[in-house]
Structures are given as C-alpha cells and as structure tokens.
Amino acid sequence: MNFRTYLFATLFLAGVLATSCAVTPEEDTYFASDRVMKSWIKVNYPGISPYGDTGAYILEMEPGSGPAVSDTAFIRAHYVKRRLDASITSTNIQRLAEQIGSYTATTYYGGNTWQVGKGYLPDALETVLKTMRSGGHVKLALPVSASDHEFSLYNAFSGTSESDNLVIDVTIDTVLTDIYAYQEKTMRAWFQEHYASTDTVTEGLYFKKLVEKLEANDTIPEGNNVSVRYIGRTLDGRVFDTNIEDTAKFYRIWDSSKTYSALSISYYKEDESKFSSENSVVGGFGKAIQHMNYGEKAAAVFNSKLGYEEKGSSPSVPEYAPLYFWLYIEPKD
After folding, report:
1. pLDDT tens sequence across 290-317
2. Residues 206 and 133 in one domain
3. Is residue 18 part of a domain?
4. How far apart are the C-alpha atoms of 307 and 179, rounded to whole Å?
C-alpha cells in the first residue's frame, strides 16, 4: 500500500468513527442536564432511582384516596414548579405567588385543569399521575430528557417555552370523568345561589335580565349597532375583563394601553351566522346579547364550549372555565 492510499484510508476511517460518535446539540444538552440531575439526587435524595422507565424521580408521594386518575381523566390541580436551586419558576397558588412577588391581579389562581392522554404534559408526569387519586400529592424531579417537549404547567395548551431540570409539586384537587357535566352542575348551583334562578336560554347558558325594557321602541332592529358595557368574571369572582374603566381600576386590571369605550356590536337576533361573522365575541356573550333590548342589564353564565373552550385565555381564564358576564346595552341615542 503506497503512502497516498494509506493516508486516504486513515482519513476515511477517522471520519466514520467521528460520525458514529457524534451527538446532536440536543442530545449533548440532555446528557449534561441529566448528569446534573443525577448529582443533585445523589446529594439530596441518596438511594433514589428513577421511577420505572420514565427517567423521573419520585421524591415524595401521598397517592390520595378519592377517585382514581384514569387514562382520559380531567385533573384539577395546584402546582409549584422549582429549579434545582429551589427557586420557584411558576405556581398557581395565590398565597405563594404573593410571597415570592410574582402575583398579578390578572392571573387566575383557582387551579388548572389538565386532561390526561392529550399529549400536552410530559409522559413521565402523566405516568406518575395515573398511579394517583383525588386528594393526592406528589413531588417529582423531572430531568430535561424526561420532559418529552417544551411545556407549561400553568397552561398545558400554551406554547410557552419551559425546558429545564425541574422539581414539581402537584396536588390533585379533583378528578373528573366528564368535565362538561361538572361545569353544568357548578353553573346551575352558582346561578341559583346568586340569582335565585335556573333559567336557561340555550344549552349551557344561564341568563337573567336584571333591568328589563319592554316598550316597542326598546326593541333592537336587525343590523343595528348597539353599545355594550360588560364585566367578565370567573365563577370564583375574579374579574378578568371589563370595558368599564372604574371597574378595571378597582379590580387592579386597568391597562393604560386600552381604550375603555363601549363595545360596538352588530345586532342580529334572527341570523346567527351574520352575528358571528360581524362580531368577535365568544359564543355565550353573543347569545346573551341577542336576548336583550336597548337599556337592559342582564347576568349570563355559560360553559367553556360557549367561552374559551379547552385552552382558556392565559393567564386570566383557565382551561375548561365557565364564565359569568354582567351585560348592559346602552339606551338608544
């Protein structure tokens, strides 16, 4: 073998070996992060091994005694998410958010709803949750490699980029098999308590006029524009939106960039498609307006199918949230 042939063969073999041993930047990041996690576990929780093949470590667990978490259950939960240095990155527990200075009046702290099996949460976390029941609590160390994808516990449906070695505390408040039946029961009880009524105008929408106008000239003609004032709340009373400036300031959600003017709605009672195409409001809001006249005030409570559905409107409206609106159509000019 001459020198040139030998040199070529040597370089070729070196290239093959380099290619076979190469790792992607992502794999390199996982390897480094996992090594940090293993060292942290060894120091703080010696003797603990990963749970099954999930790659995650169960640090503490109380499985709970209520309904079990099934493969398709809805879990209502509170959580705290920390880095390995114990600093909190996010939580939906209000008193804790206040303590660490992250509390905002525009954020909902009543718990989040996650559906198992939808692929929004890491498989490792779901695997552990499916061994638990309502009332249970788990503290889980979740390496980056066990996260599967970028995720956000606050809103499992958001695209928030969160990927790091984590320690997650999850408390399961409630386990539900039918989220809409739960909403219906909750809405009915709430409306009965606050308005002594269980009247509905369509499926999933409870409605009551607080000020009624019955004169002929109070009726709104098809196609007219009406001016609407509103206050939107979750059923725990938190105001998440309003176009009444004093109300926004009182509830500390005032935004200097927002114009607090009446909302202009193109009124179509008979033509649903026309109403939907010309107005950008959620379904329950629109259907309530369609049952009102000039000068009337009303209360409307509707389910998440008529609201922000399964995704909510982060950070103010959580997933699968029934909503309450106080509505006022200003008198005719």
Report:
1. 999 999 999 999 999 999 998 888 889 9
2. no
3. no
4. 14
Distance CA 235, CA 247 (A): 17
Residues 6+ away with beta carbon under 8 Å from 37:
57, 84, 141, 143, 144, 165
The CATH number of residue 207's host domain is 3.10.50.40
- 31 and 173 share a domain? yes
**Total H helices, total E strands in the chain:** 8, 13
> Is it true that the peptide bond before 315 is cis, omega within 30 degrees of 0?
yes
pLDDT at 209 over 60: yes
Do 187 and 285 fall within a single domain? yes
**pLDDT (tens digit per residue) in 149-201:** 666 666 655 544 456 899 999 999 999 999 999 999 999 999 999 999 999 99
How far is Cα 300 from Cα 324, in angstroms, rounded to an integer?
6
Q: What is the count of structural domains for the chain?
A: 2
Partners of 206 in the β-ladder? 200, 301
Would you tell me how many other CB atoms lie within 10 Å of the CB of residue 220? 20
Domain C-terminal end among 132, 151, 177 = 177
Residue 17 domain-assigned?
Answer: no
Q: Are 210 and 119 members of one domain?
A: no
Cis peptide before 46 (omega within 30 of 0): no
Q: Is the dihedral of CA 175, 181, 184, 189 positive or negative?
A: negative
Domain that includes residue 194, residue range: 180-329
Q: What's the rounded Cα separation, in Å, for the pair 42 and 80?
A: 22
* In contact, 270 and 222? CB cutoff 8 Å: yes
